[in-house]
Amino acid sequence: MAKKGNRVQVILECTEHRASGKPGASRYITTKNKKNTPDRMELKKYNSVLKKVTVHKEIK
Question: What domain range is 54 assigned to?
């Protein structure tokens, strides 16, 4: 039987893309340990629509 852990799936969404008003959204799915990082994650990831690396924040 699989062990239940503290890891949860989170969705990261681009902050610049949302503010620009362009259609679509740059989103990434990743996991985090909610015990070690209880706050919302913030990572720099590549946005293919804007063609540059931007800040992606955890949503929901």
Answer: 7-59
Domain count, the chain: 1
pLDDT tens track for 10-21: 999 999 988 887
Write the CA distances from 21 to 2, 12, 30, 50, 54, integer angstroms: 43, 18, 25, 12, 15
Q: Residue 59 in contact with residue 17, Cβ under 8 Å?
A: no
Note whether residue 1 is domain-resident: no
pTM assigned to the model? 0.81
- In this structure, are residues 7 and 32 in contact, taking their beta carbons and an 8 Å threshold? yes
